[in-house]
Design brief:
By secondary structure, the protein is of the alpha/beta class. The protein has nine helices and eleven strands. It has two domains: 183 residues, Alpha-Beta Complex (inorganic pyrophosphatase (n-terminal core)); 108 residues, DHHA2 domain (Diaminopimelate Epimerase, Chain A, domain 1). A six-stranded parallel sheet has the order 3-2-1-4-5-6. A five-stranded mixed sheet has the order 7-8-9-10-11. Bound molecules: manganese (II) ion. Manganese (II) ion binds next to loops. Its cofactor is Mn(2+).
Length: 301
C-alpha cells in the first residue's frame, strides 16, 4: 500500500492532489491511499462537498511505509518520521526542498500554479480516465492555488487544465464556480487568532534558524480589524515557545492583492524601516511563494 500524503496544515491542493494522485496510482494497478496530516480547512470542505468526496483519513506517521509526496519536498512539511519511510514519488510545484531518498524515485516537479495541473497532465499522458468528482477536485485546487487565475504563479498550463476539467465536470458557469470557491476560501468567521495564524502556516529553515510565515486570504482587510493585537501576541508566543527567529502572517486582500504583514521575533527589527505609521503593507503581493517569501528572504539575510 502506497500512502499519498500532502503537507502539514493541508490546503486544498494538498488534499485534492493526494486524492487525485492516489487515483492515478490505482489506475496504474497499484494499491494507494490518500492521507492527510491535519484538519481540512473550510475551502477544502466546500470542495469535497461539491465533488461528493470524503476527506482522506488522518495519518501523521509513515515509518516503514511507501509514500508519495504531494505539494512539497521539504522535510519540515513532511510527517516527522519521513526519514524512516521510502519515498517512491513526488508531485510538486515548489522549489526543490531537502527530502532525501534511498532509491531512485519518480519526481514530477513543474513550475506551474498547482500540483493538480501536473496531475491532470499525467492523467492525460497515461490516458487514465478522469471521473467527474476527480475533475472537480483538480479544477478547484487549481483555482484555489491560483486565486481564480489572479496569482502571478498562474501559468497557461493551469488555465488550459481548468478549461478542460470544467468540460469534463460539466461546469458551465466558471465565474460563479470561482466566486463560491473564493467565498469559502476567505470565510474566517469565528476563528481565533491562533487558528488564523495556524490556518496556512509554513515553516522555513533559514540561515540556520527556524522561521514561520502564515497567510490568511481575505475578501477585505476589514475582516481582521480588531484582531491585530491578538494575532501579534500569537506570533510572539510562537517565537518564544518554538525558539523561532521570526514569525509572520501575511493578511492578503485577494481582491486588491494588498498584503499587510504582521511579524515578531529577534529578526523583526530588520523590517521596521518598511513600516508606514506602524503598518507594513506589501503592495501587489498575492503569492507567498513568488512574492512574500522571496522578499522576506532578501530582507532577513
Ligand atoms: Mn499547491
Amino acid at each position: 500500500m502506497i500512502l499519498v500524503v500532502g503537507h502539514k496544515n493541508p490546503d486544498s491542493d494538498s488534499i485534492c492532489g493526494a486524492l487525485v494522485a492516489a487515483e492515478l496510482l490505482k489506475a496504474r494497478g497499484l494499491e494507494a491511499k490518500a492521507v492527510r496530516q491535519g484538519e481540512i480547512n473550510r475551502e477544502t470542505q466546500h470542495i469535497l462537498e461539491t465533488a461528493g468526496m470524503d476527506q482522506p483519513e488522518f495519518c501523521d506517521s509513515v515509518a516503514g511505509k511507501k509514500v508519495w509526496l504531494v505539494d512539497y519536498t521539504d522535510v519540515a512539511q513532511a510527517p516527522d518520521d519521513i526519514n524512516d519511510a521510502e519515498i517512491l514519488g513526488i508531485v510538486d510545484h515548489h522549489r526543490l526542498g531537502d527530502v532525501m531518498t534511498v532509491n531512485p524515485l519518480e519526481a514530477w516537479i513543474w513550475p506551474v500554479g498547482c500540483t493538480c495541473t501536473i496531475l491532470f497532465n499525467l492523467f492525460k499522458m497515461e490516458q487514465a480516465e478522469i471521473t467527474r468528482p476527480h475533475a472537480l477536485l483538480m479544477m478547484s485546487a487549481i483555482l484555489s492555488d491560483t486565486v481564480g487565475f489572479a496569482s502571478p504563479t498562474c501559468t497557461d498550463k493551469d488555465k488550459e487544465a481548468v478549461q478542460q476539467l470544467a468540460e469534463i465536470a460539466g461546469v458551465e458557469d466558471l465565474d460563479s464556480f470561482i466566486k463560491d470557491l473564493l467565498i469559502a476560501k476567505t470565510n474566517i468567521e469565528g476563528l481565533s487568532a491562533a487558528e488564523l495564524v495556524e490556518k496556512d502556516l509554513k515553516a522555513y529553515p533559514f540561515n540556520g534558524r527556524d522561521v514561520v510565515v502564515g497567510q490568511v486570504e481575505l475578501a477585505t482587510l476589514e475582516q481582521v480589524d480588531g484582531m491585530i493585537e491578538a494575532l501579534e501576541q500569537d506570533l510572539e508566543r510562537r517565537c518564544q515557545q518554538d525558539g523561532l527567529a521570526f514569525a509572520a502572517v501575511m493578511l492578503t486582500d485577494i481582491t486588491t492583492a494588498n498584503t499587510r504583514l504582521l511579524y515578531k521575533g529577534e529578526w523583526a527589527e530588520k523590517l521596521v524601516k518598511h513600516e508606514v505609521d506602524g503598518i507594513l503593507m506589501m503592495a501587489e503581493t498575492l503569492s507567498r511563494k513568488k512574492q512574500g517569501w522571496p522578499w522576506l528572504q532578501a530582507e532577513l539575510v
